[in-house]
Structure formats: C-alpha cells, structure tokens
C-alpha cells in the first residue's frame, strides 16, 4: 500500500505587528489557540495525534523548553500527545510540515500536526544568541568565508547588487505587496484561514495589522538604508517584525477516509537546498529548481507561488532566475505587508497557499523561503477534490 501525506485543515492567527495586538499574549497560549481551532474545524479527536511538530526560532525565555509540548498542554489536549520544537530559522514551520509528511509516508505517523509560532514583540530577534555565551561562529568558518559573522541585511544588499535590482524596483515591489494584502483583506480573502484571537481586554483580534494602506514607492524612497549608508535595503522593503502562529493537520488519504475527512491538498514534493551562507538568501532559487526536477513539473504547470518576502530582492531575484509568471507570485501580498513571525511563517504561508488554491481551483502551488545559513525549503502542494 502506497502512503501519502494530505492536508485536511490549516489555520492561523491574524499577524500582529511589533508591539501590536498580540504583544500582550504568551506564545504558548497563541500556539494553543490555533491547535484548539484546528481541533474544532476538523473534528479530529486530539488523542489521535501522533505528534505535534512546532517551529520556533528564538527558543529562549517564554519560547524555551519545547514550546510545542507546552502548547499541547495549554490547549488542554491529552498529555499523551507528544510534541517537539524545530529550528530551521525562518523555514522552521515549513520544515515541520516536511517532517510531518515524511513521517506519514514512512508509516511513523497516521495523524500529525505541524506548525509554529514566533512572538517577536516579546522575544526579540537575536535573543537565542545569549549575551555573554559566545558567538555561533568559529575560526574555521571565519577563515573559510572571510567574515566575522553572517548578516541577512547585508546578504540582501548583495542580492540586489548581483541581480542589478535598483532601489526603485525594490520599493515598487514592496508597495505592491501592501496593495495586494489590503485588497485581499477588503475582499475577505483571509477570513476562512484566520482564527480570531480573543484579547485580554475582551476585544477580538481578527485582521492582519501590518498593512500600510496607501504606501507608494515614492513614500518608501524617503526611508534611510538600514545596512549600508549607500544601500538599497531599508525597513520598508524588508519583512516586518511580527507575532503569530499557524497550524496544519496532516494525515494519509486512507486515514482521512476512515475519519470522514475531505483533504484539501497533497504534499506532492518537499525538498531542501543550501547556497552561499554569506549572501544567505539565494537558496530558494536552487530549491525551486530541485522541487520542479523531482516532481516532474515545469514552472508553467504551477499556478501560484509563495516566495517569502524576507527582503524584496529575494522574490525579485527568484523571478528573474525561474521565469515564473509575476502575476502568480504572492497574489495576496507577502511578509513585507503581512509580517514575518519567524517560526510561524512557513505554516502561515502554507495556510494561505492552500486556501488560495482551493478558492481558485489551482492544481499546483509552490512555496519556498530563504533561511539563515543560506538554506531554503521548497514545497509543492497538489489540490485535491477540485
């Protein structure tokens, strides 16, 4: 019997901006919220879940000591449900999906949850380095690459230079991201994928709050470069610091039938790639090529692409190298507008992707994202039941 991995439910919180609506909430509780919503929407008894695989990058403080397990306990799920926490930098929860799918295909799991969280307002970027505990780089790495450390912002500057991307092109792309995200919100596009979050003051948070309506390239042109005095990367054409969580329920086609569930999509292909750790952000390009080669698909067979907007040069260089249709890229905006809660972003993007595929009858969708260390995940989903 051939086993597969299918998505039967996917949900996310609205994405909170830095020090915004979610900043007063604990990451464990935010994680538990999407787990409970996954249970409610699917009707699956959580006691059937073989594992919860949770992405999180800054695993310190409130996000330390296996936040995936603590989310299970906070959700009130049976204490017999295992959980683990994964760090593949920005791709942590996309990697969680890959691990879940591999476990299902191998027969190690029958029902599994993948997802992730990051509360960047509460646990700042870089916290995991630990002050006074040394640096995650050795003399051998310094000698090999001629640097004292790796910097994503400088990597984005290198990408812009290598692919000849001007400040105007980057700012125009960033403004379009906000425009597309605002249009998606106005059309109610995200409503089906969002689990509104109750706040301590009794209100309910139900809409992504990072979008800057009316943003234009001309307005962005006034922002100061962030990494080089004469650079092209700034806060307006980079992803936002954000808070949020997302969760995806996966099983096999056979188990879904037994449970009376209608799968949304199949995990068709899942690959990894690695590239120059100094430039750091270019690996989505070889990851995409590898995914297409392994799947037997061509770029034109894929109807929608989600390429994480860590910095504007990443999707623009990706477009230049892959020849993908620009109109099919991030149709509802990306991390520049919606935000980038690191450990949650892979699952957030996949949640948005699978809902967009369902709503528009798109058979194949591909997502990829750059990750610290010069890494990338790429995943191809195939719509089911269309």
Walk me through what this model shows.
It comes from Pseudofrankia inefficax (strain DSM 45817 / CECT 9037 / DDB 130130 / EuI1c) (Frankia inefficax). GO terms for molecular function: acetyl-CoA C-acyltransferase activity. Pfam families: Thiolase_C (PF02803), Thiolase_N (PF00108). It is an enzyme of class 2 (transferase). Belongs to the thiolase-like superfamily. Thiolase family. This protein has 386 residues and is an alpha+beta fold. The chain is 34% helix and 19% strand. It contains 12 helices and 12 strands. The strands form 2 sheets. Strands 1, 2, 3, 4, 5, 8, 9, 10, 11 and 12 form a 10-stranded mixed β-sheet that branches. A hairpin with a 3-residue loop joins strand 11 and strand 12. The two termini are 24 Å apart. The model has no long low-confidence stretch (mean pLDDT 97).
How many H/I helices? 12
Poorly predicted runs are none
Rg (C-alpha, Å): 20 Å
Distance between the termini: 24 Å
β-strand percent reads 15-25%
Order of helices and strands: EEHEHEHEHHHEEHEHEHEHHHEE
- Please bin the fraction of helical residues: 25-40%
What characterizes the major β-sheet?
Answer: 10 strands, mixed
CA-based shape:
globular
Total strands: the figure is 12
Q: How much is the average pLDDT?
A: 97
Q: Which secondary-structure class do the elements indicate? A: alpha+beta
